[in-house]
Amino acid sequence: MAHIVIIGAGIGGMPMAFEMKELARLGDRVTVISESSKFHFVPSNPWVAVDWRKRKDIEMDIAPTLQRKGVELIAQAAKRVHPERNQVELLDGTQVNYDYLVIATGPKLAFDEIPGLGPDGYSQSICHVSHAETAKLNWDRFTADPGPIVVGAVQGASCFGPAYEYAMIMDTDLRRRKIRDKVPMTYVTSEPYIGHLGLGGVGDSKGLLESAMRDRHIKWICNAKTTKIENGQMFVTEHDENGQPKKEHVLPFKHSMMLPAFKGVDAVFGIEGLTNPRGFITIDEHQRNTKYTNVFSVGVCVAIPPVEPTPVPLGTPKTGFMIESMVTATAHNIRELLDGQEPSHKATWNTVCLADFGDTGAAFVALPQIPPRNVSWFAEGKWVHLAKVAFEKYFMRKMQKGTSEPFYEKMVMDMMGIVKLKDKLKK
Length: 427
Prior knowledge:
The chain has helices at about 15-25, 45-50, 65-70, 130-145, 160-175, 205-215, 320-340, 380-400, 405-415, and strands at about 5, 30-35, 40, 60, 70-75, 80, 85-90, 95, 100-105, 110, 150-155, 185-190, 220, 225-230, 235-240, 245-250, 255-260, 260-265, 295, 350-355, 360-365, 375-380. It is an alpha/beta fold. The protein has a domain at about 110-260: FAD/NAD(P)-binding domain. The strands form seven sheets. It has a five-stranded parallel sheet with strand order 5-2-1-9-19. Strands 13-12-11-17 form a four-stranded parallel sheet. Strand 7 and strand 8 (about 95) form a beta hairpin. Helix 1 (about 15-25) packs parallel to helix 7 (about 320-340). The relative contact order is 0.14.
């Protein structure tokens, strides 16, 4: 019988464990290695940062659910993957043997690439619930003595949605407190234009997001490289369309949140044949590494090239439904290998995203996420805010029950033409 090991217990790792256990043969073992025994619903972090949610609202213990599903949990960080000998080395030196490995670690946050960036520097972060809690403490001090805000994403960042969300949520919260008039706000981004999202835009995302920013009196600087952050000051170089420096900005702030670039985690960084230079896992169309063919990867840690050249470097986002499609394809492909067959399933990388703006929101559908697309649609409305709230509760419930895709979710998505798997290869 086979031992299938999954590193990571986030939005990719947990559904991976559920689907793999369901598809594995009787007697196959499924083990999750995670430095934390908690699951956090990361999309709700912007709400935590303004005290609209508490940590307990978006956090759950994973051990009871995994145990109930027959999945073993090792609540310890992976120190190093040794793919040449099919082992994962844990922090305490223990070696875990595997027949198949799924890397679902998420990223390492590259705060160190810019002086002063991040919660250990002079800006806040919403990438982790602990960071969001720290941001909330800073927000409390800020709202008692308001001033300028700088928010956005640095060069190399790949997940822009949370930056837009946080900007709009802060705006909503400040209006509710009736102090918005005391807070000039600037959005700083490496994107070539507002609404690019690392995706070359989706539908009319440029027009709709620019309009939303104007309505909220949020100024912006695009094609921006953040060079350093000091106490109360951010240094930004704006570039032209050819990538040449255009203007230097020194932006004062009393509260700032800048999304960092991502890298691969230390456990895999620099393993030749497994990762690219940034430490992301290289995969083929079946989510499988080409050198170590019993190693698969899903989620943010997967290497995906930028969708197009841009004046300032960007990454490509990996969103929730896209990650779930990777998970489903991987689980089916490992089962095929267990049965002595070659993998045949391909993830669609379809994307459905709900971005909350506090009292309204924006939704986009990109089928697939990477252009050219069959469907490209973007819309704004109050219904999106309500849908995001409902989805948070639904997803947490799904993780607590240990269900990766209830039948009614699949039925609705199929009816909308939003599926996880491409047609199987014709043999």
